[in-house]
Amino acid sequence: MQTDNAAASGKGMLHYFKWAFIVTLIGLALGAALGWQMTGTMGGMLSVFFICAVLAVLEISLSFDNAIVNANKLKSMSPVWQHRFLTWGIVIAVFGMRVIFPLLIVVIAAGIGPWQALVLAASKPADYAAIMRDAHLPIAAFGGSFLMMVGLSFFFDHEKDVHWVQWIEATMQRYSGIRGIEVAVVLVTVLIFSRFLRPEDSQVFFRAAIWGLLTFLLVEVVGGLLDHSQQMLSGAAKGGLGAFLYLEVLDASFSFDGVIGAFALSQNLFVIAIGLGIGAMYVRSMTIMLVEQGTLTQYRYLEHGAFYAIIALSIIMFLQSLFHIPEVVTGLGGAALIGVSLWSSIRWNRRVGDSADSAG
């Protein structure tokens, strides 16, 4: 293990982001070609090229916390399942969430077939985007409740012994022994937000939020059963198929906001898929770097910042059921929380280093 860490620490930034850079070049070239095919003008080509670049930056800014949480889960998974998530998982993330998911929303909302939805996306992008925006309320409720459960489960943990914001986290740990406390917090939050909506919207919001909550609980149950079965059959390390499924649902919840928000920049499904797909590759690269470099152990509060950002994102998704919040606010807010946690970690490392020097 020490040899592996030493080898990982010797890898430069270019090594981790090599494939992300390659996908960026290919994606932007495809975006430019698509812009030329759509408009036949240099201005149209440059416009689509720029939109793809902005969408990639949007996805990266929204996904810092996603990479950290992925790395936190991956470090407890067996090497085989780590590899599977970073290969199959990225295919599901890029094509499943950035292409298939928006199509499925239109299929369900408009009551049409998958092929008709694809034709609608290609021939009538404005109608397609309108259906996506109309479906935002249940998506926000589902994603908000799922992500809030993810964030609260990190803090309501009786084994958690490192606290960043001491008075909040120590209190949450103290009450972590109360069964179902995270579920109660989410349900109360959902009830509060549903009271500010119109009756017909309130029912849709509440039903979708309950499904988000149930999805989290079902993934936890199914994941535990699958991982237990793997341990019984092969003695595999904790964190196999169950953890893989958990990470895929988590990535989907993170992607909701970016996919819906992308329609504010472009109504073309293929332009959105290119831009968000580029960003997803950087998330994968950041995840690998965090795992191999052991960054989460070097900076003790980094995970805390990511999970605070997740809870903040869940609240923002709930708030978006009431009014629009620009995606730049979401992205910068999460990045700021992670940045502050990184700064606090560096300060703590310096204090420990100074204390060790003094003792020496």
Automatic annotation (TrEMBL):
It comes from the Bacteria. The chain crosses the membrane at residues 16-36, 42-64, 85-115, 135-156, 177-198, 204-226, 238-256, 262-284, 305-323, 329-346. Keywords: Membrane, Transmembrane, Transmembrane helix. This is DUF475 domain-containing protein. It comes from Paracoccus jeotgali.
